[in-house]
Specification:
Structural class: alpha/beta
Order of helices and strands: EHEHEHEHEHEEEEEHEEEEEH
CATH superfamily of the largest domain: Response regulator
CATH topology of the largest domain: Rossmann fold
Number of helices: 7
Shape: elongated
CATH class of the largest domain: Alpha Beta
């Protein structure tokens, strides 16, 4: 069974889509519905559905702004709208599918198959990632594995100098002037890094503590290997010094 969440500012539209989803397919269960985007965001902070049906035209926050506020997005998003001019933008926001209202049953069946394929792929990747990270039952302390765009990226911890946030993406700066751009938020990368070696000095930066050359206390900046200059937020300065 696919547990779905619907976000649409019009209660009648929610009622209609709920009816269409549950009547056109016995594989979908409506987990929750929201006409208020802020309430939906709060719900999704603590719950992970199997898919999200999201309207675009909402007065307080449109669908694309909504996606930008999502903290975790480990589920497929299906854009629902009465207008077709948002199709390209929906693809750019990595929506799994795009449904025009009123929803055609054949289109919906195709969407359900896409949801299944997406969730099956994510589950397989997560299982593989866990196996690789815990090979022989001992998590590797020398490598970090990052799941990005359906790929597993393996990096030597010692090769990482620092990581910079770019919104929903992060850029990993490596030795020898190499870079890796991954579709992970900085907080998600921070969660998988060994805390004994890495520290989040700023909302936008994580540094490898072993790659610091200098700390300019007055200016509040670090000089890293390759001479990158990284800020240390004032409120994190004390904790940073304790780390050192």
């Amino acid at each position: 069974m696919i547990n779905a969440v619907i976000v649409d500012d019009e209660p009648k539209a929610i009622q209609s889509l709920s009816w269409e989803l549950t009547n056109f397919s016995d594989e979908i269960c409506i987990l929750a519905t929201f006409s208020n985007p802020e309430s939906a965001l709060n719900f999704l902070k603590h719950n992970t559905p199997d898919c999200l049906f999201l309207d675009i035209q909402m007065p307080t926050m449109d669908g694309f702004q909504f996606l930008g506020h999502l903290i975790n997005r480990d589920f497929p998003v299906i854009i629902t709208t009465a207008y077709d001019e948002y199709a390209i933008k929906a693809l750019k926001h990595e929506a799994v599918d795009y449904l025009l209202k009123p929803i055609d049953s054949d289109d919906l069946n195709e969407t359900i198959e896409k949801i299944k394929k997406f969730n099956s792929k994510v589950l397989s990747i997560d299982k593989l990632e866990q196996l690789l990270m815990n090979f022989n039952g001992v998590p590797s302390q020398q490598k970090v594995t990052i799941n990005s765009d359906g790929k597993l990226i393996f990096l030597n911890i010692d090769d990482i100098i620092f990581i910079r946030s770019d919104g929903n993406y992060s850029t990993i700066y490596l030795k020898n002037n190499q870079k890796k751009v991954v579709t992970k938020k900085l907080k998600d990368i921070n969660a998988i890094l060994p805390q004994c070696s890495f520290f989040r000095t700023h909302n936008s930066y994580i540094v490898n503590l072993h790659k610091i050359k200098e700390f300019l206390k007055t200016e509040g900046y670090l000089i890293m290997e390759a001479n990158h200059k990284i800020p240390v937020a004032r409120q994190r300065k004390s904790e940073f010094l304790d780390k050192l």
